[in-house]
Each structure stands twice: as structure tokens, then as C-alpha cells.
Amino acid sequence: MKVLGVSGSPTKNSNTDALVKAILDATDAKTEFVKLSTIKVGPCIACMKCVCTNECVINDDFKWLSEKVMEADAIVVGSSTFYGAASAFTKAFIERLYSKRHVKLLTRGKLAATVAVGVAAEKMVAEWIGNALRAGGMEIVGSMTAKGTPCCFVCGPGETCNYTVWNAYSKELTGMDLGVEEAYKEYLEILPDNKPYAHGSAKFLKSYRSVKDEPDVMDEARRIGKLIKERIKN
Fold it and tell me: Reduced to 3 states, what is the DSSP secondary structure of residue 85?
């Protein structure tokens, strides 16, 4: 019984990494964790040379990573959320899985789980990853999201920047209340004189948000791992 975990977060020891690993640990299976930002997996170039062979001709680390995908009974794919979408590392990996999908659908029957961590659009990212894996014939056993640390918390000028994440996702700009202020009320205080894309004004109450400090989130990861365990056994 083998389970492969793939993280598309480039941040060292990220929340995405932690959740993918927590799912892996709960499977009680032989597992392996791969962080895409530490290897070389480029995007699909649409050359269509994989049609008959189901082997991608691009000479990079996807060659050995795709072998691990094929050996696995289940795969856990996690991504941080950038610009409301999956990371470029995650998207390149998903695109390259097309070589296994074309004509023969070689990944059919594998179990899968998805993880997405972000500030406001993580649910859309988890849904996108899940749909992509379903297109490869995989069955999504579980999907989870979590709130992460906005880059503005660690970049330096985040408290006074006009173009912070919470201003980009503000009701004034998007026309929707995406719940950023409520979700980060223990971490961030948006001050009364803050005006999105005109005058940034906030106070950081905490500089980092860790999923390891959120029991409900970690319990959900373990629950998904146990589901994978049960499904593989059955």
C-alpha cells in the first residue's frame, strides 16, 4: 500500500506541507512526500508526443515523479493559493499528468485527496485540483482547505501597503464580502483609516498562522488519511 503526497507550496515547512504530511501519516501506509519547488517539473508544452506512449518527452524530474504516481495506490495533492489559483508548481504537475491520461487513462482507479491553503480563494483551488484529478479517472476520497499566512504578514511593509491581500479581496474592490477580516480577526486588525488601493492601514496581532495550532484543521487532515486507509484496504 503506497500513498504519494505532493505539495505545490514553495514556502519552507508550509501549512500545505503540514496538512499533506498529516494525511499521509494517518494512512499507516508506505508514504513519500515530494515538494515540487525543490525539483524541476515544467509545464506541458502541448507537443502531443505522449498520445501513443503515455510518456512525456520533456527531460526533467517529472520522469521519475510520474513513476511514483503510477506506483501509488493513492495521491494527495496540496497547493497554496496565489492570485486566486493553484501555485504554478501545482499547475505544472497537474498539466504533465495529462501524459498518463491521454487515450489510456492510466491513472484510472487511483484514490486521491486534495488540500488547498489560502486567504480567500482556497475552496476554488481545492475544487480545481479535484476536478483535474477526476479527469484523470481518480476518485476523490477527501478534500480540505485551510487559512494560511498572508504574504503581507512577512514582507515588511504589509501594515501600511495600499495593495495588501485584504485590500485586494475587500468588498470595495470585489463587490463581495469574502470574509477575510472575520477569518483573520485574531491575526489582523484593519484600522479605520484603511482605504483599499488608496491608503493601507492595519496592525498585525500575530505574524504567522499555523494549521498545527488549529486542532479542527489537523483532525480533518487525519480523518482524510484514515479514509484513504480504509478505502485501500477495501
Answer: strand
Q: Does residue 6 sit in helix, strand or coil?
A: strand
Domain ranges of the chain: 2-148+209-233, 150-207
Collect all residues with Cβ–Cβ distance below 8 Å to 177 and sequence separation of at least 6. Answer: 171
- Give mean pLDDT, residues 185-206: 96
Read off the pLDDT band of 234 (50, 70, 90): confident
- pLDDT at residue 28 is higher than 90: yes
Secondary structure class of 30 (helix, strand, coil):
strand
Question: In sequence order, what are the beta bridge partners of 18?
Answer: none
| Pairwise CA distance, residues 51 & 47, whole Å | 9
* Burial (CB count <10 Å: 0-12, 13-18, 19+), residue 180: buried
Specify whether domain 2-148+209-233 bears CATH 1.10.10.60.
no
